[in-house]
What does this fold into?
Amino acid sequence: MAKLVLFGATGYAGRHITDEALRRGHEVVAVARSVEGLAERAGVTPKQGTLHDEAFVAEAAKGADVLVVAIPGRPIDGKRLLDAVPALASAAKDNGARIGVVGGAGSLLVGEGGPRVIDGPEFPDEFKPEAGNHAEVLEALRAQPADVDWFYVSPAAEFGAWNEGERTGRFRLGGDVLLTDADGHSRIGGADYAIAFVDEIDEPAHRRQRFTVAY
It folds into this structure.
């Protein structure tokens, strides 16, 4: 059994990862700015706080096996996810924990050799700031010293509560290139994304790497 400290527990990805972790018998410290949306249940310890409070991160990380980051890339209250990476890396190193990040699809390549999805002409302008911020987080993780272990999971292009889908347990894993199906669609449901994410916790196969998951 692993102990997960999950930042962003009330969000879409955070809720699904919590459910999958509990399904496998893991312990989850569920961190959110407001814990009112966290139902009390066995295996979950709600904790109110923010990833942008360095002292809080250091305290919450004690005894953790994995620090899960399921926070949007866009700035919240003027603070970027990128700004929290140094404190997160320090807490992970101090506790011998891995960092697991719910990433974005925009930094994936459309094919071997690029360009990135975010740089394509069809990528909506309104989503570029968040996608760009998430790409910076990935680069910041790659720049961390070798003793900071992390993984970053980019979902398919279509991922969110608006396209929920069902838990199937059937999906494909890839590396830095966007995965599409035979019809050109790139999609993954929340529950199946969480399966791939927690699989990496149970059986690490992508140390200090980004990987992607799609149908």
